[in-house]
From TrEMBL:
<dbReference type="InterPro" id="IPR003213">
    <property type="entry name" value="Cyt_c_oxidase_su6B"/>
</dbReference>
<keyword id="KW-1015">Disulfide bond</keyword>
<dbReference type="Pfam" id="PF02297">
    <property type="entry name" value="COX6B"/>
</dbReference>
<protein>
    <recommendedName>
        <fullName>Cytochrome c oxidase subunit VIb</fullName>
    </recommendedName>
</protein>
<keyword id="KW-0496">Mitochondrion</keyword>
<dbReference type="GO" id="GO:0045277">
    <property type="term" value="C:respiratory chain complex IV"/>
</dbReference>
<dbReference type="InterPro" id="IPR036549">
    <property type="entry name" value="CX6/COA6-like_sf"/>
</dbReference>
<dbReference type="GO" id="GO:0005739">
    <property type="term" value="C:mitochondrion"/>
</dbReference>
<dbReference type="InterPro" id="IPR048280">
    <property type="entry name" value="COX6B-like"/>
</dbReference>
Amino acid sequence: MFYDYHRCIGLFSADYEPCEYFKKVYSVLCPNAWVQKWEEQIRDHTFPRDLPGDFKE
């Protein structure tokens, strides 16, 4: 769901409300340490999957 959220906002925008569903799900299911690690990887351009668009957190 983390990847799906970031893919969604990359394809549409951070303001696209349906993307929030993915964020709510990963926020409940994933430990905070995982989310922090993935966000750092995105910032450092080391996230193991490509994200569409010019994604910037």
